[in-house]
Design a protein that fits this description.
The protein is an alpha+beta fold. It has 3 domains: 50 residues, Orthogonal Bundle (Helicase, Ruva Protein, domain 3); 92 residues, 2-Layer Sandwich (Tetrahydropterin Synthase, Chain A); 40 residues, no CATH class. Helix content is 54%, strand content 16%. It is globular, with a radius of gyration of 21 Å.
């Protein structure tokens, strides 16, 4: 059975409640790393449930302006209560997402928010690339879906690798934040402004 020191250590490392930490350590037979993974999975499940059941009516608009003042972003991150919207941790999180938009230049918030016609156009493009491939149609279909999944990681904010940690996606970052604050979080929209290069001089 986990002692109090292990429970508190796990709590400090994950931010989870004492009861949850104790149960995770018991389930992991006092293996700290495994207990952390258990809490992550439970946190993700709780976050998914919160997102499905709750609505957002508060939030912040975060901004980022690059030091050369030629690039700027704005992002609307919603939460459930004004209390969380004013929380420094939530505001810092929104600022990180504004930085993400500046660094990785996504086109859409998530795959679900891409217009159907754009997805179908991209799927048709991938299919055209394989028209001469001598592969069964079911294999081609799987390859096309794989290419779409990869495309999402390029164009969708939630599917991108976090600019500070390429082993973590923005989606995972949002899920962890939901588990931490106990409220639903939604990225509603963003914009990115970048000055175009000056046209070349003509004689």
């Amino acid at each position: 059975m986990a002692d109090g020191k292990m429970v508190m250590d796990l709590r400090n490392r994950t931010g989870a409640g004492i009861v949850d930490c104790k149960k995770a350590l018991e389930e992991a037979h006092d293996d700290m790393d495994q207990a952390i993974e258990i809490l992550k999975k439970k946190g993700a499940a709780k976050a998914a449930k919160k997102n499905a059941e709750r609505t957002t009516s508060e939030g912040v608009v975060a901004t980022y302006v690059h030091h050369n003042r030629k690039l700027a972003t704005m992002i609307e991150v919603q939460c459930e209560t004004d209390f969380v919207a004013r929380n420094e941790s939530f505001i810092a999180f929104a600022n990180e997402l504004a930085m993400q938009v500046a660094a990785y230049n996504p086109e859409f918030v998530s795959p679900e928010m891409i217009p159907v016609e754009i997805v179908e156009k991209q799927r048709a493009s991938f299919a055209a690339e394989m028209v001469d491939e001598k592969k069964p149609e079911d294999i081609k279909a799987k390859i096309i879906e794989g290419k779409l999944t990869k495309w999402y990681t390029d164009v969708c904010l939630t599917k991108q690798a976090f600019y500070k940690d390429e082993d973590t996606t923005v989606e995972q970052l949002i899920t962890a934040q939901i588990a931490k604050i106990g409220e639903k979080i939604v990225v509603a929209r963003f914009v990115r402004f970048e000055m175009s290069p000056a046209p070349a001089a003509t004689e």
